Amino acid sequence: MRTVFITLNEMLMQQPKKIICLVIDDEPPARDILKNYIASVDLLQLAGECSNAVETLSFLQGHSVDLLFLDIKMPHILGTSFLRTLKNPPKVIFTTAYRKYAVEGFDLNAVDFLLKPVSFERFLQAVNKVMQMNIHVAGNTNTLNEALPDQSHPFLYFRAERKMVKVFLEDILFIESLKDYIKVVTTNKVIVSKQSISSLDEMLPKDAFIRVHRSYMIAINKIDSYNTDSIEISKKEIPIGRLFRHDVSRVLNIPSLKNATTRQSITLKENSDNENHEKNS
Predict the structure, then answer these.
(1) 210 membership: H or E segment, kind and range
(2) Going from the N-terminus, what domains does the chain have, and what CATH number goes with each?
(3) How far, rounded to the nearest angstrom, does the alpha carbon of residue 107 sit from its chain's CA centroid?
(4) pLDDT digits (tens, 9 = 90+) for 74-125
């Protein structure tokens, strides 16, 4: 299948409002990296940059900001301590070179915690989390639900061949792991992106997607048929891993997959080819 790309620029007419971002870090190279990443996502807009807490406080008093990229280890005061001084802080994504601050960061309801050096893949995962949140943005009468396109049709962005590709979750059929890459198969296109399937597993809604194998994640409502060894979606036979059978059984609302010797729902089919898949799951 030929890959079809839809760029962010083609979506601008549907996105009149952007997420206003402020980068706070005492190291210029770290700020430059984040500024470049922000510039790569049309839905984000850089409001400014600050090198310390004093500059940040002054900036926030005169500007409306939706999202902070906040370094934790800064001169005079930690980013976590500074955040506690704000009465109505914007949403925050912490950045730091020290893992030990992660727990404290999440205790402050941070959207995410990025460990330096921050890769673009990891940055994009954090931004996707922000875009899926239906929250009130502090300091702004708008909400992210209003600022983003129709939230009744949630979506994610994937980086593929130097482009940011928008994918509606409702269009995803299944996702296949290809070592360091994933293949996202939708109703109208196939996207290959450098990302782990485990990281995507954390981002997708559990009531709509399920991991059925070490190498596969599927959209539950796209299942055409299934048996003890596999699930069929759009004529693609996807193996059910031994370690994932319990969860699959629960989601499909059947007592046990052990007794499901025939393909349910649409076809009657025996599967013997999936034994090899079981050894790898």
Answers:
(1) strand 209-213
(2) 18-147 (3.40.50.2300), 155-280 (2.40.50.1020)
(3) 20
(4) 888 888 889 889 888 899 999 988 776 666 656 677 888 898 889 888 898 8
CA dihedral 205, 211, 212, 213 (to 10 degrees): 160
pLDDT in tens, 192-229: 988 888 878 777 888 889 999 999 999 999 999 988 88
| DSSP-assigned letter for residue 194 | S
Residue 162 sits at the vertex; the CA angle it makes with 158 and 165, to the nearest 5 degrees, is 30
Question: In degrees rounded to 5, what are phi and psi of residue 112?
Answer: -160, 175
**Packed helices 120-131 and 28-39: angle between N→C axes, nearest 10 degrees:** 60
- Amino acid letter, 233: I
Instruction: Scan for tokens 């601008």, then name that residue.
Output: 12
pLDDT in tens, 121-153: 889 888 888 877 643 333 333 333 333 444 457
Is the Cα dihedral 30, 117, 99, 135 positive or negative? positive
Tokens of 167: 């994918």
